[in-house]
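pasting for ref
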Amino acid sequence: MSLTLLQFGDWETWQSLKWGLVLFFFFAFGACAGSFLNVVIYRLPLGMSVVNPPSRCPRCALRLKWFQNLPIFSWLLLRGRCRACRVPISIQYPFIELLCGLLIAGLAALLYLATPGGYWSAVGGDWWLAQGFSGSWPGFVCWGCALLGLLAMLVIDARTFLIPIEIPFWITVVCWIFWGVQGLRPEAPLLNGFFPIPTFEWAGTLAAFGGLGGVLLGVALLKSGLLRYSFSDYDQYLEEGAVLADYPFARREMGLEVLFLLPCMCGITLGWFVGIGLSGYPAPFFALLGGSIGGWLIAGALVWVVRILGTLAFGREAMGMGDVHLLAAMGAAFGWIDPVVAFFIAPFFGLLWVLLGALGGKVLKGLGHEMPYGPHLALALFVVVFLKPVVIDVGQWFLPGIQSASTIRLAEITPSD
């Protein structure tokens, strides 16, 4: 074997080694994020801080040292038990860490290693391949945070029937910041204004900003006491332990929610009419930020409209506000199309859960028990994000000619890093 071959080897082998190391880094980062996610999943439903106190055993309060807090490995080394009191440590901890590592590494592989113009490039479009990680890292932060937060909401909602609003709130804030940062970065020369999320012309962009302004005005009215929170007096009509669905005046409360949404609708209308008079397209900063805000508004409005109409029709709360915030946050991350598609896929997961319960509930305890809608929405979103080519194929089978707005074909572009 020549010295040259020893030094350089086969190019494809070196490329595989390089990307293997890169994906290991993404996996390790995701696993570390999963360790924090375990804290969020355990503490938020209990009203505890996710920062203080530091990680400790819930039974004997032994504070964990850094080497006892390594994702996955620490649980294996401790054999799933506390070093001091030997109380069992739930397998959820390494499982969540492993799953988060796979989510982040899998996302990176699908966005940056797919063949340009190929089948799996439809996951994010060839924009990611053209930009490379160095040119698209703010967008990757948005998608990665959204998926990790989505997993946390899935687990918490399945356990407690509640979605802590802090999770979708911070996902939304992170996405607005980093999509704005992405809009300030230079684009690959062949992209010609293509973006990784659906964007709008001036009319739609200004409508999104106007809608956000209306939401902020509505929040100000709530905080000032000029507008009452819906269902704020439920404790006067329900006994302790009763579910909110038993509240007797649900239809009345929908009037309050419509009043809250009126400033948003006015802001959207005003922004739209102002934007109609503007020609051309917004700069990337305004386009991406407007696309994120517009996705937040459209995805959230979809669930909210169903909530209002369903409550008016049946006289009981149809969908929880947590579902509204969940889908809105995903709209801020992925734009409006993916969450809308996921919304219509989610009922099939609900049906599957019911069928599994009917068929296997007697064998596996808990299978098929009542499940809130949030986990079904979350599973549908994971499918839309990671199996988008399959979703597109199924959609084309039902609706011939349907196109994916996020699929950008730039076959001549290869990964830049």
